[in-house]
User: Fold this.
Amino acid sequence: MTKAIAPRSRKVRVLATLGPASNTPEMIGKLFEAGADAFRVNMSHGDQASKVAVIEAIRGLEKKYGRPTTILADLQGPKLRVGKFAEGRVELKTDSMFVLDRDKTPGDATRVELPHKEIFVAMEAGARLLLDDGKLVLRVIEHDANRIVTNVEVGGPLSNNKGLNVPDVVVPMAALTEKDRSDLAFAVEQNVDWIALSFVQRPEDLMEARKLIGGKAALLAKIEKPAAIERLEEIIEACDGVMVARGDLGVELPPQTVPPLQKRIVEAARRQGKPVVVATQMLESMIESPSPTRAEVSDVATAIYDGADAIMLSAESAAGKWPIESVAMMNAIGEAVESDPAHGDRIHFTVIRSDPTTADALSESAKNIARTIEAKVIVCFTSSGSTARRIARERPGVPIMVLTPKMETARRSGLLWGAYAVHTRDVDSFEEMVAKAKRMVLRHHLAEAGDRVIVMAGVPFKTPGSTNVLHVVRIMGDELKGYS
Assistant:
């Protein structure tokens, strides 16, 4: 039985990561009701078999609530780690010498195995090596094909298989590991909507994933390496959306550089009309506490004011003590920020220059007309979703109702700013288009009698990429029959 749920009043999307604290059907439903618009399945943890039930539970929401659901499968990517120590743990002293090599013998306080030959090839003297999420810092003195000799600039404890970050050089590693290829094939088989690729360094890293996906899901690039910043525009152009993954980005770069980079990435993605997600440690204290710090609330608000399409919860919703409260807080922050009279001006600090196409010109016009005549909603008929993305890029002050005959398009819209997607039969005529637009906005409580509605579509109908119609209609009183 379909359970009615009112449309979100906010336009920024909330992406919630699922995990041990939230992967049951009951909890997934509660997160959706609390405000989650999309769900992240982290392929770094657990096996594929355990993910099947989670994906089925998310899809089960469609029948219960009558709304398309959105699933993002996040691939682990090439994790760099040191080897094992004879004692399991050592203490690296500041200003001592420490060697990383190809020797599989368990390490000690002077050396350890580094089982990634690609790093030896790419290494440069003077480069930094960061261990255990940046807690330890090594500086390369000399290197060859089998050894990297370093000076310990910041020492501390180091144990087996701790992570390694290489911020100063581009490591010639494939973006997809064997595990990633297996997980990607599984995700495509499970019909997920978005696939996130970790540790992207260059646009070429996206090519293999794009080929393996075969158009069956949208591709999201996680920006978490300094090398990715250098080719940011090309990377955005090569994918369908990006994520500001502030965790590793904040390890490999000085933390004070991350906020301006976040703004730069959000702006670049918006200019290209690609969805952008801001992620990592947004409400970190809510892993343990039922309420966030004021600084965390301000951080989330900043991403919304910048015009991010989506804001993401990680461990807060996946493994924390307060997953429902974390989602509800994200929802509340979004509503509060977007009710600020200054919000509309702030999200337009980023200057968006429309491409010289009919569809882009109409999308910009729709935003301006909606503001001038105080329209309640923009309705777009779309097959591929490109019209919805163009309208969303303009950040209009009203919701965007996405009417599409393709369920995959409706589902992928879950990461798109302001989008309210409905899977429905396509139209055959102008009159049917107008009638259906009115019927849908009434059915979904996005407009009422006397309201103006903007409708966008393409003629001839059922032709992808043909958006060339913008029509303004008014909802009349007699059209409300049956929708009270």
